[in-house]
C-alpha cells in the first residue's frame, strides 16, 4: 500500500485493528513508524508533536531515512484523522467560481435577475470583499471529524447533503495578531478536508434575518473527513497552486486550482488571529472550489463513494451510508 504525497515523510495517526491510535511517520513507499517508540515518548500524539514543531522536522527527517528503525507496512493498519484539533476555523465563500455557482443555484423562483445578471452582481461583491480585506470565517466542531477512509453517515434529516473538498492548513504554534507576512511561519503543514454540508439547512427557514445556520448544516458526526496525512509545509512548494479534485462514484465533480481562492492561506491565518488565538493542531479550512452537488443538481445519497485528492497530499476515500440503512 503506497502513500503518495510530496516530500520524504508525512504525519498520520494509525492503529492496528481495534488497537489504540498512535502518531506515525509515513513514507511515500508505504511504511509507517510508531513515533511513541521512536522518540521514546509513550504519551505522544500528533498534536503534542505539533506543539513543539519548531524542533520536530529535522528529527523526523532523520528518522525517515533510518532503515534500522522499527518500520511496519502501512497495509493492514487503520488510518484515522491525522490530528485531533481543539479548534476548526472554516472559510466560506472563498472560491470565486464556487460562490458564483452558489448564488445562481440559490436564487429564489421570483428573483427577477437573469443568471448572467446574478453572476455579475456576485462577482462585483467578491471584488469589493477582496479590496476591503474581509474574509468570511466561521467555527466548526472537532466532533464532526472522521477518518479519511471511514464511512460517512448521512443523517435522516439532511435533505440535500453535499460535498466540499478543501485544502486545510494545520497550525504549528500559538498565533495571535500575526501579520500576513509572518502568518505562514505558524503553519506546520497541510491536509485534505471534505466539509460536508446539508444545503437544505444552510439558511434558517424560521427567520431569514438570522442568516446562516452552520451548526445545523455542517456539524453532524463524521461530516468532516480529514486526511489521510499532514504533509509538512516545507514539502509543498506553493499551496496557492494545488489541484483540488473530487470524484463521485468515479466521475470528476470538482477539479480546480487553489489559485481561485479570494483570500490565500496567509491572509486567512492573519485575519483569524486578529480575533482569536490559533493553537497547535488547529485547522484552517480554506473553502471549496466550484463543482459541488448543488451545482450539478446531484446531492449525496446512500452508497455514494467520494474520492478526494489535492496535489501532494494524498487521497481520501469515503462511502456514504444513509442513517438507518
UniProtKB/TrEMBL annotation:
<keyword id="KW-0479">Metal-binding</keyword>
<protein>
    <submittedName>
        <fullName>Fumarylacetoacetate hydrolase family protein</fullName>
    </submittedName>
</protein>
<keyword id="KW-0378">Hydrolase</keyword>
<feature type="domain" description="Fumarylacetoacetase-like C-terminal">
    <location>
        <begin position="88"/>
        <end position="319"/>
    </location>
</feature>
<comment type="similarity">
    <text>Belongs to the FAH family.</text>
</comment>
<dbReference type="InterPro" id="IPR011234">
    <property type="entry name" value="Fumarylacetoacetase-like_C"/>
</dbReference>
<dbReference type="InterPro" id="IPR051121">
    <property type="entry name" value="FAH"/>
</dbReference>
<dbReference type="GO" id="GO:0016787">
    <property type="term" value="F:hydrolase activity"/>
</dbReference>
<dbReference type="Pfam" id="PF01557">
    <property type="entry name" value="FAA_hydrolase"/>
</dbReference>
<dbReference type="InterPro" id="IPR036663">
    <property type="entry name" value="Fumarylacetoacetase_C_sf"/>
</dbReference>
Amino acid at each position: 500500500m503506497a502513500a503518495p504525497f510530496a516530500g520524504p515523510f508525512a504525519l498520520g495517526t494509525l492503529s492496528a485493528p481495534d488497537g489504540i491510535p498512535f502518531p506515525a511517520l509515513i513514507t511515500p513507499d508505504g511504511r509507517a513508524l510508531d513515533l511513541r517508540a521512536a522518540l521514546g515518548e509513550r504519551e505522544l500524539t500528533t498534536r503534542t508533536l505539533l506543539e513543539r514543531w519548531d524542533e520536530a522536522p529535522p528529527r523526523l527527517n532523520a528518522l525517515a531515512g533510518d532503515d534500522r528503525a522499527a518500520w511496519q507496512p502501512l497495509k493492514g493498519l487503520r488510518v484515522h484523522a491525522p490530528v485531533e484539533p481543539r479548534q476548526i476555523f472554516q472559510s466560506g465563500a472563498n472560491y470565486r467560481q464556487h460562490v458564483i455557482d452558489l448564488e445562481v443555484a440559490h436564487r429564489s423562483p421570483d428573483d427577477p435577475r437573469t443568471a448572467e445578471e446574478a453572476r455579475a452582481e456576485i462577482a462585483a461583491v467578491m471584488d469589493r470583499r477582496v479590496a476591503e480585506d474581509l474574509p468570511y470565517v466561521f467555527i466548526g466542531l472537532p466532533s464532526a471529524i472522521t477518518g479519511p477512509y471511514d464511512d460517512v453517515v448521512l443523517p435522516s434529516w439532511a435533505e440535500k447533503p453535499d460535498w466540499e473538498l478543501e485544502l486545510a492548513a494545520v497550525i504549528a504554534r500559538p498565533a495571535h495578531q500575526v501579520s500576513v507576512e509572518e502568518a505562514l511561519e505558524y503553519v506546520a503543514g497541510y491536509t485534505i478536508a471534505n466539509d460536508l454540508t446539508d444545503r437544505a439547512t444552510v439558511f434558517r427557514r424560521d427567520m431569514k434575518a438570522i442568516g446562516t445556520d452552520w451548526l445545523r448544516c455542517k456539524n453532524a458526526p463524521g461530516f468532516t473527513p480529514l486526511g489521510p496525512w499532514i504533509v509538512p509545509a516545507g514539502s509543498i512548494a506553493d499551496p496557492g497552486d494545488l489541484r483540488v479534485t473530487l470524484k463521485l462514484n468515479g466521475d470528476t465533480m470538482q477539479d480546480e486550482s487553489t489559485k481561485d481562492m479570494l483570500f490565500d492561506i496567509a491572509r486567512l491565518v492573519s485575519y483569524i488571529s486578529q480575533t482569536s488565538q490559533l493553537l497547535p493542531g488547529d485547522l484552517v479550512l480554506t473553502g471549496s472550489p466550484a463543482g459541488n452537488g448543488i451545482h450539478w443538481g446531484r446531492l449525496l445519497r446512500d452508497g455514494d463513494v467520494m474520492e478526494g485528492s489535492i496535489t501532494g497530499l494524498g487521497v481520501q476515500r469515503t462511502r456514504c451510508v444513509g442513517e438507518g440503512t
